[in-house]
Design brief:
Elements lengths: L1 H19 L20 E8 L8 E6 L2 E3 L2 E7 L5 E6 L2 E3 L3 E6 L6 E10 L13 E11 L10 E6 L7 E8 L9 E5 L7 E2 L3 E5 L3 E6 L8 E6 L5 E7 L4 E9 L1
Parallel strand pairs: 3-9
Antiparallel strand pairs: 1-2, 1-4, 4-7, 5-6, 5-8, 8-9, 10-11, 10-18, 11-12, 12-13, 14-15, 15-16, 16-17, 17-18
Length: 252
């Protein structure tokens, strides 16, 4: 009997002790990294057939404007969703796709719509229905002669120079016999250096790359890029594209 009484008393004391323990408080849910379902997407114009060998897609430029006869890569930013693209009469169900825009699309503004569906995060976003749609507009220019943001006078600054400097960039169209197109640059380094008919450029609407044609050319290779906010970056490459100087600026 004493043994049973001792066991019973032990159980009661253990239960009381357990009840007096401080229970851990539930931490607040961290939603700082969470986001609602979004149909946002990117558009990138592709340069093909430049360096080092023809037919290779060499660089992609985020853009809202392209030249005709160019390919654009469309990419949804939402992962793990179902996708539905509307491009004219075409409907496509995949996260990423590429489309070629011939001269038939020149001087047109094309609506590109993406609809995304995904199981929403109801804990962080109780009002999110998991559905979103976005329409963006792709502007198609006729050809390379419409170099609105890659031709003209640009003002750049560099940490290596005390003052800002202006660079004149002129477009020289090709002659149909393999000569050109070229971009001639005047005062490209802020030190009075010019590059005349030495760089053959491969261009997207907002970005172009000029590669030296022979080892005896005095000009460096160059890359000029205009971002969506119309900020300009000029990169000069000396040697085998390893020694780089970069300047930042705007078009005047």
């Amino acid at each position: 009997m004493k043994k049973l009484t001792f066991i019973a008393l032990s159980i009661i004391l253990l239960a009381q002790y357990s009840c007096k323990k401080v229970q851990p408080e539930m931490k607040e849910l961290d939603c700082s990294c969470a986001k609602e379902v979004s149909a946002d997407f990117t558009m990138e114009e592709i340069v093909a057939g430049s360096f080092p060998e023809d037919g290779v897609e060499n660089f992609w430029t985020f853009t809202d404007t392209i030249y005709s006869e160019k390919t654009v890569r469309f990419t949804a930013l939402e992962d793990g969703a179902t996708y539905k693209w509307y491009m004219g009469s075409e409907i496509v169900n995949q996260k990423q796709l590429k489309r070629y825009f011939s001269t038939a699309f020149s001087n047109q503004v094309l609506p590109i719509t993406l609809v995304v569906k995904k199981k929403p995060n109801k804990i962080c976003f109780p009002n999110d229905d998991g559905y979103d749609s976005i329409t963006k507009y792709l502007y198609v220019k006729s050809d390379l002669s419409e170099t609105v943001f890659l031709e003209g006078v640009f003002r750049f600054y560099s940490t290596e120079l005390k003052d800002s400097f202006d660079v004149q960039i002129d477009f020289v169209p090709g002659d149909g016999f393999g000569n050109g197109p070229y971009f001639n640059m005047y005062n490209y380094d802020g030190l009075g250096s010019n590059s005349i008919n030495q760089l053959k450029w491969f261009a997207n609407y907002l970005e172009a790359f000029g590669l030296i044609q022979t080892s005896i050319d005095a000009s460096p290779s160059a890359r000029i890029k205009c971002d969506i906010n119309r900020r300009i970056t000029l990169s000069l490459y000396y040697g085998l594209l390893t020694n780089e100087k970069k300047f930042f600026g705007r078009k005047l």
